[in-house]
Write a structure and sequence with these properties.
heterodimer, A: mainly beta, OB fold (Dihydrolipoamide Acetyltransferase, E2P), five-stranded antiparallel beta sheet, three-stranded antiparallel beta sheet, 2 helices, B: Peroxisomal Thiolase, Chain A, domain 1, Peroxisomal Thiolase, Chain A, domain 1, nine-stranded mixed beta sheet, three-stranded mixed beta sheet, about 25% strand
């Protein structure tokens, strides 16, 4: 059953809520309770700004189960402004050539295509090209 | 001040819009594409083009973005919000609230009301009036009301040209903190069967020409004329008017019948560019006005929902608008972000292809 897993991850998935290390101020995503930089406990919640840039990317033409209806789609490793690297789909890309270093912002979208009309809908973060650069 | 016997609804404590946010998806289907496929390009088209949601978008995701924009302008903590109400006729689930998904995503949980509203195209303004009551009675400091839709039209039907996706979110709060004060509201409601969708049906039915005079025009005019009379105002008192906009013709004709000039209508009239966003239609027009209006400008908003009813409300823009409207994307930022799709791509994106 996937329900408990999706439910447990909702805060980090919907709004990029991670953690901050009270000892060295490192920002952690995903949250892991122990700071990878200094080894101290890091349990304070931290909401990431959602801004970052494309660190690397690839386009998926042969999708895994659950993603058939949205293929082809582009997956990127995004380097968040606060430091961590996050793997996520890019969205709203039409007419935009993806480049390494391209600035992106987080949006909350449906993560899986609704192939199962009876199942729960799973939402989470994706990244898109910046909508209005003057607001960043 | 408030008089429980008055037909005009006035909150005990003055309230207004503290933050607002719009959302329109990036895809556009030109009306000429629908006409090409279904009428051999012979038919007239009611608008230029309509917005189409992406494969990963629905009323929950679109409401989240509009709500985040409203929060940016309100400059309040999401934990101060005591209600998250989402009005729509295309909620993603038949049973399970959209509003809890939105409230969770913006960080308004757990100390909040949350519920979904449905009244065809006026569910958003109905939620706004309820939010005015919650805040205006002193029960809550802030309440969020959203009207958002991903409307569906039967392939080839007149509504397929216009049924679009988009909407707006508003945070209602105290007058002192407001970008626009909502002075009072009046609603005019009757049982009128002009448009409906039965349970388990994918597409709505409508009464063709019956949707005009006895439905749209009757309710907008009745709400508007009564509101002007009760508030002792005239069309000249308002810088702008924004009406529910199922097509380009109806709101322009209704505004003229109420005595308003085309100049007062045009800023809030977005239907030709984005289509009819149903629960979002009148209120996304309001966001276009708030993006431009000057302090002390008065705005008359009249929604219409089939089934049928209209909510009329007057807003007065405050000094705070100039400082805070730039804190989030404007509706024109979303409208100018535009990717045209053809009918085949639209059919895929809207799930009209039979896959199994």
């Amino acid at each position: 059953m996937d329900i408990p897993r999706h439910w447990r991850l909702r805060k980090q998935r919907y709004a990029l809520v991670g953690e901050v290390c009270d000892n060295c101020d490192a920002k952690l995503f995903p949250p892991r309770d122990i700071c990878p930089d200094c080894g101290e406990e890091a349990k304070t919640l931290y909401s990431f700004s959602g801004h970052g840039e494309v660190y690397s990317y690839t386009t998926v033409y042969d999708p895994p189960v659950g993603f058939e209806e949205s293929a082809p789609y582009t997956v990127a490793i995004v380097k968040l402004d606060e430091g961590p690297l996050v793997t996520a789909q890019l969205t709203d890309l039409e007419e935009k050539e993806v480049e390494i270093g391209m600035p992106v912002e987080m949006v909350t979208r449906k993560l899986r295509s609704a192939t199962d009309e009876r199942g729960m809908l799973v939402y989470g973060y994706k990244f898109r090209p910046i909508l209005n650069a003057s607001l960043v | 001040m408030s008089d429980p016997n008055s037909k005009l609804l006035t909150p005990q404590n003055p309230v207004g819009i503290v933050g607002y946010g719009a959302y329109v998806p990036r895809y556009r289907l030109p009306a000429s594409e629908v006409s090409r496929v279904w009428t051999d390009s012979m038919g007239a088209t009611p608008i230029k083009e309509k917005s189409v949601p992406g494969l990963d978008e629905d009323v929950a995701t679109m409401s989240i973005e509009a709500a985040r924009n409203a929060l940016l302008r309100a400059e309040i903590a999401p934990t101060e919000i005591r209600a998250v109400w989402v009005g729509s006729e295309s909620h993603p689930y038949a049973v399970k609230p959209t509003s809890t998904i939105v409230a969770e995503a913006i960080g308004a949980v757990p100390n909040t009301q949350a519920a979904d509203w449905e009244f065809a195209c006026k569910a958003g303004t109905e939620a706004m009036v309820a939010a005015m009551g919650l805040v205006g009675s002193g029960m809550a400091g802030y309440a969020m009301a959203i009207g958002m839709d991903t409307a569906q039209g039967r392939p080839g039907d007149a509504l397929e040209y216009t049924a679009a996706a988009g909407g707006a979110a508003f945070i209602i709060g105290p007058e002192d903190d407001s970008l626009a004060v909502i002075e009072s509201t009046y609603s005019f409601v009757t049982d009128t069967p002009d448009f409906w969708r039965r349970a388990y049906q994918k597409y709505p039915e409508h009464g063709h020409r019956f949707t005009g005079e006895p439905a749209y025009f009757k309710h907008i005019a009745s709400a508007g004329l009564a509101f002007l009379e009760m508030t002792e105002t005239t069309p000249e008192d308002y810088a702008y008017i924004v009406l529910h906009q199922p097509n380009a013709k109806f709101p322009q004709r209704a505004a003229a019948k109420l005595g308003f000039e085309p100049e007062q209508v045009k800023t809030g009239l977005l239907v030709s560019e984005i289509g009819n966003t149903y629960s979002g239609a009148a209120i996304i027009g309001l966001t276009a006005i708030l993006d431009e209006a000057q302090p002390e400008d008065k705005i008359l908003l009249i929604s219409f929902g089939s089934g049928a009813g209209s909510d009329a409300m007057a807003l007065r823009v405050t000094e705070s608008i100039e400082k805070r409207r730039h804190l989030a994307p404007k509706v024109r930022d979303y409208i100018s972000r535009r990717t045209e799709v053809d009918y085949a791509t639209y059919v895929r994106m809207r799930g009209k292809l039979v896959m199994k």
